[in-house]
Amino acid sequence: MSHTVPSHPQMDVQIERKFVPKQKDLGEDVNWAQINKDVLRSLEKPRPAFWIIFFSALALFSFGVYCEVYQYQTGMGVSDLNNPQVWGLYIATFIFWIGMGHSGTLLSALLHIIHADWRKPIYRYSEAMTTFTLMTAALFVLVHMGRLWQFYYVVAYPNERWVWPNFTSPLVWDATAIGTYLTSSLLFLYMGMIPDLAICRDNAKGARRALYKFLSLGWQGTDRQWGNFKVAYMTMACFLMPLAVSVHSIVSTDFAVSQNPGWHVTSFPPYFVLGALYSGCSGIITLFIVLRYVFRFEAYMTQPILNKLIKMTFAIAMVWTYLDLIEYATTWYGSDEVARQDLVYRATGDYALQFWGMIFCAMVMPFTLLIRFVRQNYVVLLIISLILNVGMWLERFQIITPTFAKSHYPWTWTAGWWPSWVQWGIVAGSFGWFTMLFMLYCKIFPSVSMYEVKEMVHEQNMHDKLHGAQAPAHQTALGAIPEMNGGKI
Hints:
By secondary structure, this protein is an all-alpha fold. The chain has helices at residues 9-19, 32-42, 49-74, 88-113, 123-145, 170-203, 206-215, 223-256, 268-294, 303-333, 337-348, 352-364, 372-376, 378-405, 421-444, 450-469, 471-479. It has 17 helices and no strands.
């Protein structure tokens, strides 16, 4: 004879908590006073590696400035850009930086809306990453123009004659997208920092105190201020999500409206958005490991949080891989013979090494994230996160250069074209520019949200107290089940 054990949802939850223990995102020894002390210390005394990274980035940026000045004084011919190779590395790297920047604010806003607490120690620097990658991408619009003094041609200002700016030009679309998203991201980043700037104001001296006092806008932490702050921050998060998706869809439209083989496909907008999230998540992992060591954030950038970030990166990588394979399948089985030949040329032609390098770095390497050793070894994980972004940069290169090298008309083919050292120098300088700005930001402003980590610690402690108070009832509930106390059915 069988007996049915009555189901009690609360009892089921208690059983799950007992037999499936979940690792906490933060350690139990983290307290509020320590949070302030650790974050404020990061603004004063980082590890010596900070200065090594900063001056290396400054040297790289200086070389990029030299290349740009040389190109400006000599002419665009030194870049080897000519018809049909009119974009080269400039627009490929522009797309890379735009994509890398979209995930920081987008994921921060999304995780804030769904109340994912594990985002709280890492969202601040990911939003800063968005801001500086957009500032880096904006440089390539100017560099690609050549005539820097005519930058206003790409700004969508009102005009009566409709001559300039040219609203059908993708450069105008890109400038509008960058301007809109950069302004919104800056406002979102700054708004979230106001309570922490007040903490810095109360603990700083001299010029730093004056800076923090000005930026904290008289924040006192009253109930009214907190209420207005929470509403405004959530509103901004809801606004930024569709904005981020639409902005990178605009960038993909630069290609989709063209008739070039391999570009005129309807899957480009979601493909670009997923690619942006993929490269951005890889960048967040890279910065996670760097900041954790340089600024001594081991207590806040923990392994459980990193595991969640890795899982999200792997999931996004798989969706992006699926969309990429769909693009190849529709091209191969479609009726556009020129597009099919373009796909074959990418895989077997002059740029086959870059194509298969992209396949390996961006499609195969993510599976290494499933290995526990990789997830727990920070040096190996740092290298893999960099490899993933190398694959995403190669993917942008593959979209542009092979298509221009062998398009519809044979007399425009430029097989074997390769960028000049000037292009490579400016691209390298952009990485130095981003790294330099990001490290300066982390030295001046708190890169870990103090007030949100305190909320996280408080909620974790309240959960522990509640769970501990329910322990006797939990044990009684378990004892009432025959299987749990040695009884038989």
